[in-house]
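As noted in the main text, all predictions were made from sequence alone. Below is one such record, for Phosphodiester glycosidase domain-containing protein.
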Amino acid sequence: MNKNTLLISVFSFCLFCGCGDDNDGIPEWPWTDPTEEPTPPPEEPVEANPTIVAAGWTNVNAAFGSLPEYINVYKSPEQLQGKKAVAYIAVADMAKGGKFEVLGDIAYCDDKSIANYGAETVNTPDQFYTTSKAPIIINGGLFFYAAKSDDSAFYVSQNLVARSGEILAVNQTYWVEDWSSDPLVMWYPTIGTFCQTEDGTCKTTWTYSTGTKHYCYSVPADNALNKEPLEVPSATFPGVAEEFKAVNAIGGAGVLLSNGEIKNTWAQELLDVAADSNQPRTAIAYSTDKKLMFFVCEGRERTEGVAGLTTDEVANVLKSLGCTEALNLDGGGSSCMLVNGKETIKPSGGEQRAVLTGVRMY
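Prediction:
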């Protein structure tokens, strides 16, 4: 049999045995359809906040599970402000749906021994996460313990809380250094607040409640414990006041940034927050491109060599990341950030502290 006869025989066998096709006996040949578009390679994910990455921060979303597409979490470089650091920021694009809200069951206590705003319970960030399931949670404002007339517990809020347009608590309205002095000497500080306004943007301001009026100012009253007390804040002092209105708001422990300028007004606000020492810190901030940021840094040597930051250094870090508004919140043992319920920094007390308020990003 010659070569041509062998090829014809093999082809005939394939036709009749139906190899490669059970329907018509014609083999299937691996022809490529010329009209088919080639499958493009998968696109590289686009970094939502390239300036933050360019500043040395690392996107760590993958370490914390699924997050809304408009929220990203970053870990700091090994040093901030020339110091060894462990810090995290969570960033929400408010133009794409990012929001914040203050957590905590805040109400007015009319017990005469209290007559103030707060709650009968406090919660760890873990407990706030259990009830809210928020992607990001940080600790909130300042508070202290007080006993009601029946000796039951009440936790007094020193800071303003506003939720869904309702003011649930106001910032502390007075300061007394020595309750035994005669006559009693009282100061009337304007205290910082971070608020979301009705148009959806965020800003820092200084507030004061007279009981019948609630004011906000573009500057703080220039108080100091080594000076005579200034007058009670009003519609015209320490500047022309506006009526305080906010969709959501949290008071804190010193305005860090306002209109893009570093302020760091803890002293004028008469707040002893160990501002000039290295401490764990928590802050909330906002940038002109509508990015909401939560910041925490570790401290007190929970990680060897990591002492923490001063409030001025936190202000500088946030400004370097593009923030124009920022408020220092309760820090120290209260500082904590959870991402999908997982801790970022190590709490300085070894475990999470129960706090009166938290703030959620969602």
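The first helix runs from residue 3 to 17. The chain has one domain: 51-361. These features were considered when defining construct boundaries for the mutagenesis experiments described in Section 2.9.
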